[in-house]
Each structure stands twice: as structure tokens, then as C-alpha cells.
Amino acid sequence: MRNLILLAIVAASMATAACNTVSGAGKDVKSAGEAVTNTAEDAKK
Asked: pTM for the whole thing?
């Protein structure tokens, strides 16, 4: 029973870390997209 609880805690910790990683990657992609958009707008001028 202890092993099952320990496994559940480890799995929850890993899932939380993965969510933070994906969230951070999403923010990076968003920032890159905004930079490209701004550069394109500046090139139009």
C-alpha cells in the first residue's frame, strides 16, 4: 500500500512539473511570435 501511495505522489509531482514546462514553452513560443509580428510590422513601414 505504501508503494502505491508513493508512486501516486511521484506521478503527481512529475505531472505538475510537466505542466509547468509546457506552460513555459507556450510563453516562449508566444513571445517569439510577437517578435516576428513586430518585425513584420516595422518592415511594412
From this structure: 0.57
